[in-house]
Amino acid sequence: MSELPISKGERTPWIKFRRCLWYVAALIMVGTLVIYSSVFQESWSLNPRTSTPNSSTSHDSVPPLVDEYTVAYPHEYHFILDELNRCREESPFLVLMIPVAPHNREARHMIRSTWGNVTMVQGKVVSHYFILGQSREENGAETIEEQLLRESRDHRDILQSDFLDSYHNLTIKTMLMFEWLSTHCPQTSYAMKVDSDTFLNVHNLVGMLLKAPQHLYMTGIVVRFAPVLRDQNSKWFLPFSTFPESVYPTYAIGLGYVFSLDLTRKILEAAQHVRALYIEDVYVGLCMKHLGIPLTDPPRNDMFMIWKPSDTGNCYWTSVITTLLHSSNQLLDVWKSYQIQAQSGC
Ligand SMILES: *[C@@H]1O[C@H](CO)[C@@H](O)[C@H](O)[C@H]1NC(C)=O
Ligand SMILES: *[C@@H]1O[C@H](CO)[C@@H](O)[C@H](O)[C@H]1NC(C)=O
Ligand SMILES: *[C@@H]1O[C@H](CO)[C@@H](O)[C@H](O)[C@H]1NC(C)=O
Fold first, then answer.
1. For ligand 2, is residue 155 a contact (CB within 6 Å)?
2. Could you say which of 39, 91, 150, 292 has the lowest number of CB atoms within 10 Å?
3. Residue nearest to atom 4 of ligand 2 (CA)
4. Which residues cross the membrane (predicted)?
5. Could you tell me the CA-to-CA distances from 11 to 2, 20, 21, 25 in Å, in that order?
């Protein structure tokens, strides 16, 4: 069929039809692009081999991979016990954030009477908050919630949100910590996520931070190329279907990592795109990888310690920043040793 000379403005039915076809084709192309980009932006673990085996759940949109190794985040949780203005008013240089189970009053008590009671170092204000979810248990006549309310009034250091507090939900707790810091502490330079069963030398921590980078900074025990645990009996088991890579991203071990406050917003942005795994420190590492921000090793590799050496004489406690203890019950004794070492000119 030869081209008919058509004057401008004239539309034959055939041209109209072609135009219509063109629109349909364009629409299909755009639609495909939109679907593809949403699939690939979501994260690596949405490829077909890792999607949920239950096909009844797959409709037009890609369903989130929900299994026992992921957690419900992002999601809008609410704080039941909060400190709305305290951080803004005190403008601490450093905030210590301590995840703790609701019933673990003992650990909170130990921390308040040891490193949690250090509130000023080299003229810099330091404060601490405990971060909790909700408990399932009831404790005798007085519920845990009532105890917590009283504890919160007495100490003003309790942040409790409305998710179920459990080991598998620690990532939710960590992400709520970032949310809380980013909205409540506008003048704060650094924060540390620190477990309740650790010794913390706040003086050395502040000393290190006064010389540290001020932006996009995270440090602690930085682990690189750690193999993913595929043994089902491991506490940190991850199946291939949830996490297909063979090594974890570079991450800082959860017992104690430090970061500049500008990272909180960045990590929360990344969390919109990276599926939340139950292993909280690895998940933060995944967010950092997504952001392309490298972690920083501490100035010395004997500052953040996982194991307490058998010999803690020789100024051990005055030279470290953190050491993991067997339980927070050890904290009072260790704190005494630390004070003795500090007073003996270590
Ligand atoms: C999909 O999962 C639901 C709930 O987990 C179950 O009731 C249903 O039988 C499953 N369907 C298929 C096709 O496996
Ligand atoms: C905290 O330290 C102050 C001294 O700086 C002391 O008076 C107070 O008793 C301490 N509080 C606890 C709970 O140990
Ligand atoms: C985690 O928290 C969510 C929200 O409260 C809850 O629905 C879920 O059951 C919790 N998961 C575990 C394993 O505790």
1. no
2. 292
3. 117
4. 20-39
5. 16, 12, 15, 20
Give the pLDDT of residue 327: 85
162/165 Cα distance (integer angstroms): 9
Amino acid in the structure at residue 111: I
Domain residue limits, the chain: 79-343
Nearest atom in ligand 3 to 71's CA:
1
Q: Give the residue ranges of DSSP H helices in the chain.
A: 13-42, 86-90, 105-112, 144-155, 170-184, 202-209, 262-270, 280-291, 316-319, 331-343
Taking 50 as the pLDDT cut, the residues of the chain under it are 1-10, 39-63
Tokens of 48: 């077909």
Choose one of 115, 117, 336 to mutate for the ligand 2 pocket test, by most ligand atoms within 8 angstroms of C-beta: 117
Tokens read off for 21 = 């076809």
Give the integer Cα–Cα distance in Å for 339 and 180.
33
Q: Under DSSP, is residue 125 helix (H, G, I), strand (E, B) or coil?
A: strand
CATH 3.90.330.10 matches 79-343: no
Q: Are 137 and 147 in contact (CB under 8 A)?
A: no
| Cis peptide preceding 74, ω within 30 of 0 | yes
Instruction: Give the pLDDT of residue 26.
Output: 74
Cβ-based neighbours of 40, under 8 Å, separated by 6 or more: 46
